Amino acid sequence: MSTIKKITSLLFGILAFSLIAQAQDATEIVRQADLKMRGESSRSEITMKIIRPNWDRSLSVTAWSKDNDYSLILITAPARDEGTTYLKRGNEIWNWLPNINRTIKLPPSMMSQSWMGSDFSNNDLVRESSIVTDYTHELVGDSTLSGYDCHKIEMIPKPDAPVVWGKVMIYISKAEYLQLRTEFYDEDNTLMRTMTGSEVEELDGRLIPTYMEMVPADEPGHKTVLMYEDIAFNIDISESFFSIQNMKRVE
After folding, report:
1. DSSP 8-state class, residue 162
2. pLDDT at position 241
3. Do residues 52 and 92 make contact, with C-beta atoms less than 8 angstroms apart?
4. What is the 3-state secondary structure (H, E, C) of 4-71?
5. Does residue 19 surpass a pLDDT of 90?
6. Helices (H), strands (E): how many in the chain?
7. pTM, whole model, 2 decimals?
8. How far apart are CA 47 and CA 197, in angstroms?
9. Which CATH class for the 25-247 domain?
10. Where are the domains of the chain?
11. What is the pLDDT of residues 177-230, one digit of tens each?
């Protein structure tokens, strides 16, 4: 092999290694940020406020999660929605409606639809897709948000992932792994909605954004806010808690 070919081969090898290392670094950053916000398991008390140009409404929610495979969401207020629950077990999503005494299995086609009339989707709340395993990740720049130095990471859905977006841009603080901004684009690269995290506080020993705001790009005056009132991480909770029977009686 000639000297030029050897040098070219070496340069291609270095470039390939650099790209692989960068992808691994980006994925690890996303994994750390996701784990920080969820923990291995958690129990959260959340207030959701749906804001429209001429009205607004609030929901009180208790949510439990375990790993990426299990979650249960209970609506505790207002009275007309009290007792409504959503359950995720693996790839199955269930909804319990106490007012009509009915359990519904949600088909994949409903995962992108609005959750309780908000700007969050069913998938956002029960996390059918994972920002870690369902996307490829690439560091594409740096940014500063609310005084935090952030990584800017482009996330592209994997071919078979249960994801409706063409790409997602996520901004994660370098030192604290805070998810401070997430931009959702369709397949035509049009910005569809933006989620921002703010009011960083310590809850159960972790610094996290306690105020999450989702704003659709094409609906002026529309937004939905999630306010974390309390959260406990790494709680002792078994997989059996996340059952269809329990979703009807959990309090």
Report:
1. S
2. 96
3. no
4. HHHHHHHHHHHHHHHHHHHHHHHHHHHHHHHHHHHCCEEEEEEEEEEEECCEEEEEEEEEEEECCCEE
5. no
6. 3, 13
7. 0.85
8. 15
9. mainly beta
10. 25-247
11. 999 999 999 999 999 999 999 999 999 999 999 999 999 999 999 999 999 999
